Each structure stands twice: as structure tokens, then as C-alpha cells.
């Protein structure tokens, strides 16, 4: 029992006792009763005792009733105050607010009216069957099912939901609604807060549409590149093969001047052929069309073969290649593709190391992986360049200060090397302390390959 309630009952008891004593005193002196006063106060005749007890109980009852009336009045005042606060907040809210009890709308604010374009009075007059008239027909079944589950206290369903709404003027709107059970005027009901997210949804849909268009354009671009590359590759192969034949078999039949022209055509054809091959590789990588043929190969042999293939360029630029390789290290790899990775990184080192420079090649085997390191002492990379290096078309104009380096290329080599390494369940790591401080590429191949 609460303290103030006890106080009212005690007060009734005290008033009753005072009445008992005062009435006894008055009765004793007015009627000049004989005998001790205390006997007349606490041991009156039965009829008088009965009357005093009734009045005494009435005082106690009055205290209890008065307490209940006071408590109810305080409760009603707090309820009115609470409702006034709710209405003030609700009317100032940008969210639509709706309270439903027994299938009837008991409250709706102006923000909700602005969202669905129905007046508050119209909504208040809706019958239970009309409660979903502002909801898109495709959504009504789901909304009714959700409301029923929330009403039953189901905890399996999330209280918020995004759905389509149709306004009075037949405009399609997107809203985010949050529904939960409340007690309203001492009865259970449902309160729903609604936020208009139409602009946000339209922006999202616009972004999706634009992304889809970009994907389609990118696909068209890739298809065009592939078709053009295939169309170019055939005549390029003919030009390159023919000029090779002229230079190696029929060179005695031409003057030095003509041989120089043929050599220019041959070198240009070789560069174009390399570019076309790289473009086709990029297309295949992005289209997931590259299929690797994993077999056990000696990585040391592949590395040595790659260095031998590039021997003419090494001699031409007077480079010194130092190697630190074990006798053999076998691993499941695609021979052609891993050799392509080695060649791309070796070519990169040759191009960006000034003539007479040094290139270091090393292979180390660990318990979990194998590291192939290709280190040069050339131009190097800045921190900004490192972020763009492995991107498609990620060619960086790296001119070394006072260095004679080869800067030709389209920027495909390192991108292809990185992607082919990834397809081998590996990673390509770059280390460089900055401009003119050289660079180190580490091809890390993990021994557990997921084919």
C-alpha cells in the first residue's frame, strides 16, 4: 500500500477516534451521567456503542474513498498532461503518426495527411476495411499479415518495413513505417510512425539504373575491344611473321637501308601484337574466361627460361642479372600463365633500370608459401604511384632523374601480373622507398591452391 494512501486511512481513524471521545464527553456532561468518565467513553451501552462504531467506520471509509478520488484525479491530470505532450510532439513531428484501436483510427497527425494526401477527418472516418486504402495493392497482403503478427506480440517480425503507398492523387510514394503495440486511453492499440522516403528511393533507383547503363556500356566496350583486337591480331601476326622471315632468311637480298625499314616494321608489329595480346588477356580476366591448367612444375626452370627469353634485351641494355635460386622447387601452377607473370615483372625491371644497372632475382621456399623476388635499382615508386600501379591502364610516367629508362607501354603488364597471381591463390607485393630508390616485387604463391 502506498504511503499517501496509508496516511488518508490513518487520518480517518484519528478523526473517528476524536469523534468517539468528543461525543462521549458531550453525552456524559449534558446528561449528567453517573459513574466514572472512562467507563462511559469506552464502555457505553450497546446501542450507543453500535452507533459510535458505525460512525467511526464511516470516517475510516471516508478517508479511503477520499484517497481513491484524489488518486484518480491525479492520474487523470497526469494522463491529460501526457496526452497534451504527445499531441504537441506529434503535431510538430515531420513523421506521419497513426494510432489504431479495434480497427478504427483514433489519431492521425498533419504530417501523415501530407504524405497520403487524405485529410485527418477522412482518415478518422475510415472503416476497418478501408485502413489499407492508401497502401499499394501489391503490399496490402504483406502489411495486413505484419500488423496481425505485431498485434499478437510476435517477436519474429521486424517492426519497421519499407513499402509502397498510393496517395489520394494516385501518386506512388515510398515510406518507411515502424509499428508497435501501445496502451492508449487504457486500451491496447497500435501506433505507426511513417517517414516519406520517396526522394531517397527515387535517387537509389536512379543510381541503380545508371549503374546498369554503365555496366552495359562497359560490356559493349569490352566486346568492341575484343572484336577489334581479334580483327587486328590476324594481320599483325602476318606482318610480324613475314618481317621475321625477311630478316632471318632473305636478309641477303636487301640493302642495309631496306633492312632497317623492315626491322622498324618488325619491331612496331611486335609491340602492337603484344598490346593486342594484353588487351585480350584483360578482357578474359574481367570476364572470368581464363581457365588455368594446374600441373606440378619446377618454378626454378620457369624463372630461368624467362630470363633466357629476355636475354637479348638484357644484353642490349647492358644489365647484370644476379640470381639466387635453389636447384628445384615444384608447385602446381599453370606453366604459361605463371611464366607470363615472371616475364611481365622482369620486363618492368629491365625497362625502368638505367643501362648498366643490376637486377636481382631470388626464390625462397617457406612452410606455407613460396616467394619469388624481382628487385631492381631503378626509378622506384612514390607513395601516390603505389596506389595506382596495379590498376588497369595504370601506366605511370616514371621518369628517373638523370636516368635513361624505357617508358613505352600501355599499362597492362602489372595489372595482368597481379590478376594472374591472384588466380594462383597468391599475391603480388610491391616495396619501394621512393623515387630513384629502386623497387622490389614479391610474387607470393601459397602452397594450398584452390582450383
Describe the fold and architecture.
- The protein has about 450 residues and is an alpha+beta fold.
- The protein has four domains: about 5-90, no CATH class; about 95-195, Beta-Lactamase; about 200-285, Helix Hairpins (Orthogonal Bundle), CATH 1.10.287; about 295-445, Heat Shock Protein 90 (2-Layer Sandwich).
- Helix content is about 55%, strand content about 20%.
- The protein has 13 helices and twelve strands.
- The chain has helices spanning about 5-30, 35-40, 45-90, 110-115, 120-125, 135-150, 200-250, 255-285, 300-310, 310-315, 335-350, 385-390, 415-425, and strands at about 95-100, 105-110, 160-165, 170-185, 185-195, 295-300, 320-325, 330-335, 360-365, 370-375, 425-430, 440-445.
- The strands form three sheets. It has a five-stranded antiparallel sheet, sandwiched between helices. The chain has a five-stranded mixed sheet with strand order 7-9-10-12-11, with helices on one face.
- A hairpin with a 5-residue loop joins strand 3 (about 160-165) and strand 4 (about 170-185).
- Helix 8 (about 255-285) packs across helix 13 (about 415-425).
How do you describe this structure in short?
With 451 residues, the chain is an alpha+beta fold.
**Which fold name corresponds to the CATH topology of the largest domain?**
Heat Shock Protein 90
Helix content: 40-55%
Number of domains: 4
Q: Tally the helices: what do you get?
A: 13
Strand content: 15-25%
Low-confidence stretches: none
**Large-scale geometry:** elongated
Reading off the top of the CATH hierarchy, the class of the largest domain is best stated as: Alpha Beta
Protein name: histidine kinase
InterPro entries: HATPase_C_sf, HATPase_dom, His_kinase_dom, HisK_dim/P_dom, HisK_dim/P_sf, PAS, PAS-like_dom_sf, Sig_transdc_His_kin-like_C
Coiled coil: 197-227
Keywords: Coiled coil, Kinase, Membrane, Phosphoprotein, Transferase, Transmembrane, Transmembrane helix
Amino acid at each position: 500500500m502506498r504511503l499517501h494512501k496509508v496516511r488518508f486511512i490513518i487520518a480517518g481513524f484519528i478523526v473517528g477516534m476524536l469523534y468517539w471521545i468528543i461525543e462521549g464527553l458531550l453525552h456524559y456532561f449534558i446528561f449528567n451521567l453517573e459513574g466514572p468518565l472512562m467507563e462511559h467513553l469506552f464502555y457505553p451501552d450497546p446501542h450507543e456503542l453500535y452507533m459510535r462504531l458505525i460512525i467511526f467506520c464511516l470516517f475510516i471509509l471516508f478517508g479511503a474513498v477520499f484517497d481513491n478520488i484524489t488518486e484518480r484525479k491525479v492520474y487523470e491530470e497526469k494522463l491529460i498532461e501526457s496526452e497534451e505532450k504527445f499531441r504537441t510532439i506529434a503535431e510538430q513531428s515531420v513523421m506521419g503518426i497513426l494510432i489504431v484501436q479495434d480497427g478504427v483510427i483514433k489519431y492521425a497527425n498533419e504530417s501523415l495527411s501530407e504524405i497520403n494526401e487524405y485529410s485527418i477527418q477522412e482518415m478518422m472516418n475510415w472503416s476497418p476495411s478501408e485502413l489499407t486504402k492508401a497502401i499499394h495493392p501489391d503490399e496490402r497482403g504483406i502489411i495486413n499479415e505484419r500488423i496481425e503478427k505485431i498485434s499478437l506480440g510476435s517477436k519474429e517480425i521486424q517492426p519497421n518495413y519499407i513499402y509502397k503507398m498510393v496517395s489520394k492523387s494516385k501518386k506512388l510514394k515510398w515510406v518507411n513505417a515502424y509499428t508497435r503495440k501501445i496502451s492508449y486511453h487504457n486500451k491496447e492499440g497500435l501506433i505507426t510512425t511513417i517517414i516519406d522516403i520517396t526522394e531517397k528511393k527515387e535517387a537509389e533507383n536512379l543510381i541503380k539504373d545508371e549503374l546498369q547503363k554503365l555496366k552495359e556500356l562497359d560490356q559493349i566496350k569490352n566486346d568492341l575491344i575484343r572484336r577489334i583486337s581479334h580483327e587486328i591480331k590476324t594481320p599483325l601476326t602476318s606482318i610480324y611473321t613475314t618481317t621475321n622471315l625477311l630478316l632471318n632468311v632473305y636478309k641477303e637480298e636487301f640493302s642495309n637501308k631496306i633492312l632497317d625499314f623492315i626491322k622498324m616494321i618488325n619491331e612496331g608489329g611486335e609491340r602492337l601484337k603484344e598490346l593486342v595480346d594484353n588487351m585480350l588477356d584483360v578482357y578474359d580476366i574481367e570476364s572470368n574466361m581464363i581457365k588455368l591448367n594446374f600441373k606440378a612444375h619446377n618454378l626454378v626452370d620457369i624463372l630461368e627460361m624467362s630470363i633466357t627469353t629476355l636475354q637479348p634485351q638484357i644484353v642490349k641494355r647492358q644489365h647484370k642479372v644476379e640470381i639466387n635460386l635453389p636447384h628445384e622447387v615444384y608447385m602446381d601452377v599453370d606453366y604459361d600463365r605463371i611464366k607470363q607473370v615472371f616475364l611481365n615483372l622482369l620486363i618492368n625491371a629491365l625497362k625502368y633500370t638505367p643501362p648498366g644497372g643490376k637486377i636481382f632475382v631470388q626464390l625462397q621456399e617457406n612452410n606455407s608459401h613460396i616467394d619469388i623476388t624481382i628487385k631492381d635499382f631503378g626509378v622506384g615508386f612514390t607513395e601516390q604511384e603505389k596506389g595506382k600501379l596495379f590498376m588497369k591502364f595504370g601506366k605511370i610516367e616514371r621518369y628517373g632523374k638523370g636516368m635513361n629508362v624505357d617508358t613505352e607501354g600501355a599499362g597492362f603488364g602489372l595489372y595482368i601480373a597481379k590478376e594472374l597471381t591472384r588466380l594462383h591463390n597468391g599475391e603480388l607485393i610491391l616495396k619501394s622507398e621512393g623515387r630513384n630508390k629502386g623497387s622490389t616485387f614479391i610474387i607470393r604463391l601459397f602452397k594450398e591452391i584452390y582450383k
